[in-house]
Design brief:
Elements lengths: L4 E4 L1 H9 L6 H4 L3 H5 L5 E6 L2 H9 L3 H11 L5 E5 L12 H13 L4 E4 L10 H9 L3 E7 L8 H13 L4 E6 L6 H14 L4 E5 L6 H10 L4 E4 L13 H7 L11 H17 L6 H4 L4 H5 L3 H13 L6 H14 L9 H15 L7 H7 L12 H11 L16 H10 L6 H9 L1 H7 L39 E8 L2 E8 L3
Helix pairs in contact: 6-7, 6-21, 8-9, 9-10, 16-17, 20-21, 21-22
Bound molecules: cobalt (II) ion.
Length: about 500
């Protein structure tokens, strides 16, 4: 079998997972030519929380970053993480905005698009995949890995077949919580290779200490590419370190060849950058966190969970609330616990324990039950749907969530023109997702924002009936954490979310 190939994630997921996405373009550029000459199959450099972070914290134009990185590393395909119909935000955008985003990104030099949906609802991937293919670029369809009675290897493989039929060039297994066990990784890769026949990539995190072992099992099963980073932006909540993977593969017939001197040089360079970003790093993210396996909850969510319960005078209810998370998740059709669903499920579980089951239903939880985020993987509790109908008169929607949205590009151009801002696709899509931050970028008097600690203030959830609800769960403090007000059918809900890694 051919040697396995590595993608490198240090310029995106590495610092997003361990340093709150705060690496600047200036900190990336010296390393880019070295990374470019190493033989990586791809460099993940863009998307995820990087666009938000560029605008909100670093005062950078994210498209300028991509162009600069393309120039500095022209020989290796560059990869971005795209959240399907949500682009790089947390709510659905109309098709014309998704298409404009992909077109602008392709024109700026993006090569590979990793496209996913938090619910694995493939309807939310269709527009992005189609547009990537129309731009002549590589569409990598992602299967979000999670554990539940409905998330079987067979179901994931079926999704892989569907992604191939939708036009994907390769299939990624996206294990954002780092919970895929080696034998499961082996089984999934084996079956996806047999039944899908496209290149298979495994992406995991070392949060629970399983990452490198699962990569090894996937390599034994014939995975084409695994994703590694460069220490110290590696291991812990990020991807396993490249050097560590090489050591693990010593003597393996699929061990790739890398210049160890250059790897040492990169490690030294990024050690300096890690120190510069010390304000945003935390030992909590660097250690192995096996609690995430016990509770089946993403590591970032658990780290503040105990504190949140204490603030609610529910410190003694930890085990009860954790058990309730299982119940709520089942009632909501076994949705994967990733952003923003992890926060929504956690908050609802706290409310159920505090006020009694479903006495208060968070609007965001109701929206999941009503299919407003997409189709949950399992069956939503009929009792819950009935309660929501009794209280709000709302019934589950049948179609794709974005079908309810009208085209927005003409309006976006008008809004920008009214502000004397450029009205090209790049400007429109950034304005659509981050209106205030994008406008700030064009204020000549405003100096580039100095990196600052992310806002972690809690926002009260809106209760479906009377009673003071507990504060929503906070995400890990050193991840990009934001509040989003979602208004759907006139009902406003506030969720606090951090980026899906
Ligand atoms: Co990731």
């Amino acid at each position: 079998m051919k040697p396995v190939r590595f993608n490198n994630t240090v310029l995106r997921d590495g610092h997003q997972s361990l340093a709150a996405t705060r690496m600047t373009t200036a900190q990336m550029l010296p390393a880019a030519p070295i990374l470019d000459g190493m033989g990586f199959a791809g460099l993940e450099t863009w998307g995820g929380a990087t666009i938000d972070s560029c605008l909100r914290f670093l005062g950078e134009n994210p498209f300028d970053r991509l162009r600069a990185l393309k120039k500095a590393a022209p020989h290796t395909p560059q990869i971005m993480l795209l959240r399907g119909q949500n682009i790089v935000q947390y709510t659905s955008f109309p098709d014309d905005v998704v298409e404009a985003f992909v077109r602008a990104d392709a024109a700026a030099g993006q090569d590979i698009f990793r496209i996913f949906d938090a619910l694995n609802d493939t309807r939310n991937l269709a527009t992005a995949i189609k547009t990537v293919k129309a731009c002549g670029k590589h569409a990598r369809g992602e299967i979000c890995y999670t554990t539940s009675p409905v998330h079987t290897v067979e179901a994931f493989v079926k999704m892989g077949v569907e992604l191939r039929e939708m036009g994907c060039d390769s299939i990624g297994i996206k294990d954002m919580s780092g919970v895929i066990a080696p034998r499961i990784a082996y089984a999934m890769v084996t079956q996806l290779r047999q039944r899908v026949g496209l290149p298979i990539i495994l992406h995991t995190h070392d949060t629970a200490g399983l990452g490198a072992s699962s990569y090894l099992a996937a390599i034994d099963a014939g995975v084409d590419i695994v994703e590694t980073s460069i220490a110290p932006f590696a291991n812990g909540t990020a991807q396993p370190d490249t050097l560590r993977m090489l050591a693990l593969l010593e003597g393996h017939d699929r061990c790739p060849t890398f210049d160890l001197k250059k790897l040492a040089q990169l490690r030294e360079y990024f050690t300096g950058v890690y120190k510069e970003l010390g304000k945003f790093t935390s030992p909590d993210n660097e250690r192995v966190d096996s609690d995430t396996l016990i509770y089946q909850v993403p590591g970032g969510m658990l780290s503040n969970f105990r504190n949140q319960l204490k603030e609610q005078n529910m410190g003694d209810k930890f085990e009860q609330v954790m058990a309730e998370i299982f119940y709520v998740r089942e009632a909501l059709g076994w949705i994967p616990l990733v952003t923003p669903t992890s926060q929504i499920v956690g908050t609802q579980a706290m409310m159920n324990v505090k006020f009694g089951r479903w006495k208060t239903i968070a609007p965001a939880a109701a929206d999941i039950a009503l299919n407003k985020y997409g189709r949950p993987p399992g069956i939503v509790s009929a009792e819950l749907i009935k309660l929501i109908f009794e209280r709000t008169g709302q019934k589950p929607i049948e179609g794709r969530p974005a079908d309810a949205l009208s085209p927005r590009m003409p309006k976006l151009r008008e809004e920008l023109a009214a502000k004397n801002l450029p009205g090209d696709d790049e400007a429109c899509v950034l304005h659509a997702m981050f209106p205030q931050e994008f406008a700030k970028l064009h204020q000549p008097a405003t100096p580039a924002a100095a990196p600052s600690a992310p806002a972690v203030t809690a926002t009260p959830a809106v209760a479906a009936d009377a009673g003071a609800p507990p504060r929503p769960l906070q995400a890990a403090v050193n991840r990009t954490t934001q509040h989003y007000a979602l208004t759907i059918d006139g009902q406003r809900s506030v969720v606090e979310v951090s980026e899906v890694l």
